[in-house]
Amino acid sequence: MATDERRVVALLGHPVAHSLSPRMQNAAFAAADLDWEYVLRDVLPEDLEGAVREVEYANVTAPYKLDVARILDSNVPSVNTIVHGHGFSTDAAILGEVGEVAVAAIVGDGGAAAAFRHALPAARVYSRRGEWPPDVRDADLVIHATSVRDEVLFELGPGQTLVDLPYPRTATAEAAAAAGARVLDGLDVLVAQGAASFELWTGLEAPVGAMREALGLST
Predict the structure, then answer these.
(1) How far apart are CA 190 and CA 65, in angstroms?
(2) Of 65, 117, 144, 169, which is the active-site residue?
(3) Superfamily the domain 7-89+188-214 falls into
(4) Are 43 and 68 in contact (CB under 8 A)?
(5) pLDDT at 35 over 90
(6) Is 113 an active-site residue?
(7) Residue 164, pLDDT above cutoff 80
(8) Exposed/middle/buried for 75, CB within 10 Å: 0-12, 13-18, 19+?
(9) DSSP, res 97
(10) Collapsing DSSP states into helix, strand and coil, what is residue 109?
(11) Which of 48, 74, 125, 195 is the least crowded, having the fewest Cβ atoms under 10 Å away?
């Protein structure tokens, strides 16, 4: 689908320089023959509302997902995707790859964790500001939504699935994989949410293969 209309999608956050989203989304736009560009936009807190009001298409990352939901008066508690002034969350799109869940647990309480709490309302939630340490022995699905990378926060084993949101893989994810748990890591999560965002912006099916290839993942 070729188009002469050039559009820009911004990633709003602070900081954003580490993000792999431009690599992935620009590969997706090229694969779809769209003259679109995905750019990073590091936004200071005092400039956030103005930035949100002026973008047509955007992703939102830490620490602003909850703030943007309030600014846009969204019907979801955490926003990571903006389309023409409307807020959406695609953070939990990875759940489509998990299958049926009997007992879920969420570790963390930030913006991404809020998206998974919305998608999994029966899940137990653990955070250092609430119930801690996590007790996930009976959970078949655990969402790791903290920024802790080098500490093993909990242990999993065979028959359990971990969705590990940070990338690269955390120590918790490495330990879980070594113990026989199924691990969907931060790059898997990035592709799933990125594909869902792409489809909201463009109305086209996301070229997931090109997105995975851009991140060095098997297709």
Answers:
(1) 15
(2) 65
(3) Leucine Dehydrogenase, chain A, domain 1 (3.40.50.10860)
(4) no
(5) yes
(6) no
(7) yes
(8) exposed
(9) G
(10) coil
(11) 74
Which fold would CATH assign to domain 93-184?
Rossmann fold (3.40.50)
Question: Which tokens go with 197?
Answer: 């965002």
Question: For 65-75, what is each residue's pLDDT tens digit?
Answer: 999 999 999 99
Amino acid code (one letter) for 77: P
Distances in Å between the alpha carbon of 145 and those of 76, 100, 197?
18, 20, 19
Mean of the per-residue pLDDT values for the chain?
A: 96
State in Å, rounded, how far the first CA of the chain is from the last one.
22
Show the tokens assigned to 75. 């019907």
Domain ranges across the chain: 7-89+188-214, 93-184
**Ramachandran bin of 190, using left for φ above 0, alpha for ψ from -120 to 50, beta for the remaining angles:** alpha
Mean pLDDT in residue range 6-24: 97
Residue whose structure tokens are 């099916």: 205
**Is residue 194's pLDDT more than 60?**
yes
Sequence length of the chain is 219
